[in-house]
Amino acid sequence: MNIILCGMPCSGKTEVGKKLAEKVKCSFVDIDDLIVEAFAKRYDETKSNREIFIERGEPFFRSLEKEQITSLSAKDEYVIATGGGRFLDLDNVNHLRSIGVIV
To answer: CA-CA distance, 8 to 82, in Å (whole number)?
Structure first.
């Protein structure tokens, strides 16, 4: 079972997530970090989420985001930090619900 944290930017998901993961003895992952890593690997350039969103557009960013959310299927006993935008897509919501508890 995973614990999935959602909320607005800068609301403390990463900080709380890391502490919670340590407390419940789980691993921690931030979907924002996964997006940045996937982009860097695929395009051989380092960009922040904001830069990816602005330079490539929202549809492109959301497609990377969806890929990373889907990649979490194999994860178990994780605390996962997400952003509020992840919940704009019903497929993302359903997938996240299927792999854990959303807080």
So the answer is: 9
